[in-house]
Amino acid sequence: MRATAWAAAWAAVAALAAGCGGGEKTPGPGANRPGGQPTGAPKLPTGELKDGTAADLDAFLKDNKSFVVLYEFWSVGDPGAADRVAKVDKHYLENLGYGLRTAAVCVDDPGKRAEAEKLLKDKDVRAANFFLTDKAAPGLAEKYGFAGQTPHQVVFARSGDRVWKTGDPLPQVTGPGGKAEASPERKFQVLVFQELDKTK
Fold it and tell me: CA 193, CA 185: separation in Å to the nearest integer?
């Protein structure tokens, strides 16, 4: 069924995906739209790494209201940073027509900027990319749940409300045979699909 196929596509690019099983109850994006068809083909960002502040992250969220927005806070020193950012970008490219927007937010010091730019170029990352210049801004902790540690993810619903951040509980997921899924990656995948399936 379509939902299971979408789940498999997402799981194929999720970390530790090999350990994630498929299930008939897994939701998929577009379920509330006729035929599950994409809602449009928005113009791709250039992938350029731009200086950004907490206010710029807020503006990105405001500009993308009515979409599900995923922020990935990262550092070049994170284990597997390149693959992680590339996977988030692949999620974006595969699901942007269904209402997903992503922003990769590099939180390194200025001396690491060139390294961050090379990583993004090498992986051909096309989603929005910010090089955060005000890591101590109070709004980052309050709105995005970011306290300086990476990797950190946060998801906002179509309404603009935050629905999940790293450290929050993930939804319970039932796999084949009614067995509860244990993989955090699988649960995160379902959480995003559930938000994509909502119309507002």
Answer: 12
Topology of domain 2-30+46-196 in CATH is Glutaredoxin (3.40.30)
Domain boundaries, the chain: 2-30+46-196
Residue with tokens 């730019």: 117
Whether residue 5 is predicted with pLDDT greater than 50 in this model: the reply is no
Q: What is the CA radius of gyration of the chain?
A: 16
Find out whether 167 and 152 touch, Cβ atoms under 8 Å.
no
Q: What pTM, to 2 d.p., does this model score? A: 0.78
Reading the block at residue 45, the tokens are 């960002």
Tokens describing residue 73: 């806070």
- Give the long-range contacts of residues 119-123, CB within 8 A, separation 24 or more: 119/76, 119/81, 119/82, 119/85, 120/47, 120/49, 120/85, 121/47, 122/82, 123/82, 123/85, 123/86, 123/89
Helix axes 2-13, 184-196, angle to 10 degrees: 130
Reported residue count of the chain is 200
Distance CA(107)–CA(83), nearest Å, equals 17
CA atoms in the 13 A half-sphere facing the CB of 1: 11
Predicted confidence (pLDDT) per residue in 114-133, tens digit: 999 999 999 988 889 999 99
